[in-house]
Each structure stands twice: as structure tokens, then as C-alpha cells.
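User: Teach me something about this protein's shape.
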Amino acid sequence: MTDILFLGDIVGRVGRRIVARELGGLRRRYHLDLVIANGENSAGGIGITPKVMDLLFDLGVDVITGGNHIFKNKDILPVFGEELRLLRPANFPPRAPGSGYGIFEAKDGTKVGVINLQGRVFMDPIDCPFRTADAVIEELREKAGEVPIIVDFHAEATAEKMAIGHYLDGRVSAVIGTHTHVPTADETILPKGTAYITDAGCCAAANSVIGVDRDKAIEYMLTNMPVRLTPQKGPAVLMGVLLQLEEGGRCSLPRRIQILEEEEEYSLQDGDEDD
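Assistant: First, the predicted structure itself:
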């Protein structure tokens, strides 16, 4: 068995703080062999920086996936292509730096393919994730044979996430949805054996609007005027899913996890001012 933890979108310093606090214990408790995390909002609530990337790796994240905000901080651009553990959606235009997939060795020696894709419904125009998935899976098979493959599908619409789950059913080990920051209760094994969940949730402030300052989010909703949306401060929540890869690449039913930071555990001294 290869034990894998997939962490939902890490939002700002608050999200990083709870990952720092909990990930070591989760690694020991569940004997984790591989940790994948979506880090596209991990610096200041939007984008990622080289410093934050290094911090997440130091905390024990093995692979960082992205989404529509992954290039928001220009400092990260030169890192893509050099740091193979940092992914962006594979269906970004071909001239985008970096790669959307890779093969990574888990702690137990198992080679695991990870593919990052982005949806198109209610999102910026982008290449077709379905056709891109076909091409990437074929390339991974040519390079490494029948390795298990975990897909991070970063998309808005639940129907699009479900559709690609069924489209890839039997061809990949798991399809994990990200982007909405709200965990769904539809974890399942699809008919042909692929593990699936529509959204893994997020690692962010608990009493927020998908990690964003709730007062600023409400102000925007009430006025429709430009508002600088920043991460909410306060106690955090860690959300994600646990996967067990069996021999042959089949996954067990995804197990949702959620760890809420208690009010008394939270302190501004933890460094809640975001960067």
C-alpha cells in the first residue's frame, strides 16, 4: 500500500500555518508516502513565490500543483522548468513555462504520476483538458509504463469535474477536484475503478469566505465595486483527502480529513500578517 495525502488549496499564511502545525503529525499517523498540495494561492492568498514554495517543500509537501492563479507572482516564473516538483495546469498554452505533469517517487519507492489540469467552464479560455489528459496519459505510459496516476482537476463547475472523472475512469488512479475551496461529500469509486471527489476543500482561515476576508467579500457582494480581497485572519482549518494506492494502481475510497484549529490555539503571534 502507498499512502497519499492530497491537501486542498493552501490560502495565504494562515493556510501555511496549519499545514506547518499538522502535516508532520499526519505523516506519522497515516504513514504517508507522498503528499500533494495545491499551492496556487499559498502566497498572500493569490499565486506562489519561490520562498513560499521552498517553505512548503520543507514542511513535507512532495508535489505542488497549481491552477488559474499559479503565475500571479512573476517571481515564480524562472522557477518553472527548474523545479520539477512544481506543476501548473498541463492545458495551459504550450509557451507557458514549466510542466503540467511529472513522475514522482513516493517514500515507499512507488513511482506515481501526477497530472495538473484546469477546467474551462466559468474559467478563462484554455486548451481542452480532456484532450490534454489523453496526450499526457499516453506520454506518461510511454515514459514509465503502467504507473498509478493522480489528477488534480482545478475547475469551477461540478459537472465538468464529474465529466472528466468519468472520462478518465479506469485510466487513472484518482481524480481530485480543487479550486472552489469547499469540500464535497461525494467521494466514490467510479464504475471502472478510479477514485473520485469533486473538491478536496482548502487549508485556510475557518471563518472566511473561501479563505478570503469575509467583510471584504461581503462588501464586494453588496456594492459590486472593486475591493482588494485579502486572506482572512484567525483560526485555520486543514482539509484534504487520504488515498491508499493498492498493487496495480487501484485506489481505495478517498477519505476526507478536516482539522479545525481551536480558538485557544490561535494567536496573532503565529505571524498572521500575510505576505
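Now, about its shape. The first strand starts at residue 2 and ends at 7. The chain has a mean pLDDT of 93. If you'd like, I can walk through any region in more detail.
User: That's plenty for now, thanks!
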